[in-house]
Amino acid sequence: MAEIVLGIYTAHGPQLNTTPDEWELRLPADRKRRHWFKGKQYDFDELIELRRDENLGAESAIEAMQVRYDACQEAVGSLAETWREVSPDVCVIFGNDQRECFHEDITPMFTVFGGETLDHGPLNEEQEQRLPPGILQSEWAYRPHDTVTYPGLPELAKRVMEEGHRSRFDLSWSLHWPHNPDAWHHGTPHSFTWIFRRVMENKVVPTLPLICNTFFPPNQPTATRCYEFGQMVARAIADWDSDLRVAVCGSGGMSHFVINTEIDQLFFKAIAERDPEPLCALPQDLLMDGTSELRNWISAAGCLFGTELSGDALTYQPCYRSEAGTGTAQGMIAWT
Ligand SMILES: [Fe+2]
């Protein structure tokens, strides 16, 4: 029986990989779009008005951002160190696709990647030019300089499909990443490659990517369904006749592109108490925009709550970049 020996819940966003002055490159985009916050949508100026009493001007001053940045780098270092110490044989990642592989022609709810290998490579010049400011600068944390091939985990992927059938999940199946030549991306989505590059430090073990459509309505799974998905994957791992030591990661979040510390703290509390109820009770309209990626934490919780593993949060840093509260809350938990 395969054993889960490490559990990781982690943010993976660009602000982890860029300096505070580069965070500010995102401000023009922040000002342009409408943002989900606590179940409603607002524009930038409405958010400033709404959050006037939260002192976010001081929180997003360059000195404050630098303190948050330094703490994040230390926590990423701790996460990588934990990975090295535990040294799992294989990895299962609950991640998502952000229009990197799947586009408007088809957006599956849950996809199991069953390929022998996962390709990944640098962008060409034209694709790089399509990246918005503040994102381009973070690419080093998601992409290699040369095309690489990472090992997949097809044996476990097939077991997840079988357990999915038994558990009444209708899953999508992929043997190689969908490739759209007009897209800004090709290869493995960032929610997986951030783990490869910054947690595994490029010593990538065979990995099973489980892709959830966290972002794009109308077929985002409910919180409860994400939890059940994680439980189903735990059964597939437990039934796997193998002596391999497995890491399980939930990759994404925390609240963004507008920070909501309430929802982030709800996650820390529920995970510390191994309590699925507050997670499963989260309504769809609280899991929108980047915050939607917390669905991957819920699936990881479904997979990990039944294990003996435990551990503390490595950090929580609400990395504000404006007085409107835009930015990304960075959080990490490691269970050993
Ligand atoms: Fe993301």
Any descriptors?
binds fe (ii) ion; 8-stranded mixed sheet; Protocatechuate 4,5-dioxygenase, Chain B; single chain; two-stranded antiparallel ribbon; 336 residues; alpha/beta; 20% strand
Description:
The protein has 336 residues and is α/β, with parallel strands linked by helices. It has one domain (3-335): Protocatechuate 4,5-dioxygenase, Chain B (3-Layer(aba) Sandwich), CATH 3.40.830.10. Helix content is 35%, strand content 20%. Strands 8-5-9-4-10-1-12-11 form an 8-stranded mixed β-sheet, sandwiched between helices. A two-stranded antiparallel sheet has the order 2-3. A hairpin with a 6-residue loop joins strand 11 (313-320) and strand 12 (327-335). The model has no long low-confidence stretch (mean pLDDT 96).
Brief overview, please?
This protein is α/β, with parallel strands linked by helices. 35% of the residues lie in helices and 20% in strands. The protein is built from 12 helices and 12 strands.
Structural class: alpha/beta
Number of domains: 1
Report the strand count. Answer: 12
Biggest sheet architecture: 8 strands, mixed
Q: Distance N terminus to C terminus?
A: 18 Å
Strand order of the largest sheet: 8-5-9-4-10-1-12-11
Question: Could you report the average pLDDT, rounded to the nearest whole number?
Answer: 96
CATH class, named Alpha Beta
The fraction of residues assigned to DSSP E strands is: 15-25%
Under CATH, the topology is which?
Answer: Protocatechuate 4,5-dioxygenase, Chain B
CATH level-two architecture = 3-Layer(aba) Sandwich
Low-confidence segments, given as residue ranges, are none
Bound molecules: fe (ii) ion
Number of helices: 12
Q: Spell out the helices and strands N to C.
A: EHHEEHHHEEEHEHEHEHEHHHEE
Oligomer: single chain
Q: Cα-atom Rg, whole angstroms?
A: 19 Å
What overall geometry do the principal axes of the alpha carbons give? globular
